[in-house]
Structure prediction request, 271 residues.
Amino acid sequence: MNLNTITEVKRPTSADEISQWRDGYAWLAGGTWLFSEPQVAVDTLIDLDTLGWAPLTATAAGLEIAATCRIADLHAFKAPTGWRAVPLFNECIDAFLMSFKIWNAATVGGNVCMSLPAGAMISLTAALEGVGTLWPRGGKPREVPIVDFVTGNHQNVLQKGELLRSIHLPASALSKRFAMRQVSLTHLGRSAALIVGTVGNDGSDFLLTVTAATPRPRQLRFARLPSAAELRQAIDRELPADAYFQDVHGSAPYKRHITYYLAEQIRTELA
Ligand SMILES: Cc1cc2nc3c(=O)[nH]c(=O)nc-3n(C[C@H](O)[C@H](O)[C@H](O)COP(=O)(O)OP(=O)(O)OC[C@H]3O[C@@H](n4cnc5c(N)ncnc54)[C@H](O)[C@@H]3O)c2cc1C
Prediction:
């Protein structure tokens, strides 16, 4: 849609060009959400595209995903041998309800910064122990694990004008085995639950990441693969009945029920 409140589009070549922030400014990534509804409080868009960040940089330490990396770029990523968790990229991308236009325009950073419970790039990067680099206006860069970046439905730790620069996925997490389950109440509907388990080759360091069923990502970590009873007890402890997200895509009791069900499937698959 046309945003008729916009009077200026800035196209910086460095984020430092935007040293002052004021109400009315908004970072523009793929624009798929920004242009999907009126933005009456926004008069200036600041296009991140002209910053020219490399979308994906793989090193021995892991994978650096620029916030401006498009979903289509991530889908095309060819992993170095040994990064066994990379097929999870496409499983999460497939869980992201979108048209051709969103596929080619939406960015990983835009999805994470939207901070919706069903944000599939949040599920992916939290499950693979991603750490975001944040650039505040006029302050020092800071790092925040993605699991802590989202604080609630459409809420996150970003301060006014703060920019998500990139997300680092460590090679240690990329090398783990994984299992993923996702369900929607309707065919091709928004996720009611998207749950990922990862585990080391030797069965150590089992990490269960629950998303979509809860307002923000929740993680349960075990030194080794737990038994079915241990897993259920941990979910009971960490995710009480009021920890689930109730919306048109599923009631909280339903999401709680499928969390137990899918978590057990994941545990069994990885055992
Ligand atoms: C038809 C439709 C279906 C959708 N289905 C889903 C779905 O199933 N699951 C889901 O999670 N979402 C869904 N969405 C919303 C989706 O999250 C966004 O459209 C998309 O992820 C936003 O990415 P973008 O790059 O286009 O961001 P933009 O629209 O450009 O920006 C989104 C917001 O993030 C801010 N922002 C963007 N990048 C940064 C950055 N690097 N640092 C700081 N702030 C930033 C922007 O200022 C803006 O507030 C849907 C949207 C539409 C229109």
Remarks:
- The radius of gyration is 19 Å.
- The chain has a mean pLDDT of 96.
- The pocket of flavin-adenine dinucleotide is lined by residues 26-34, 36, 48, 67, 96-98, 102, 105-107, 109-111, 113-114, 116, 118-120, 158, 163-164, 190 (CB under 6 Å).
- The longest helix spans residues 252-270.
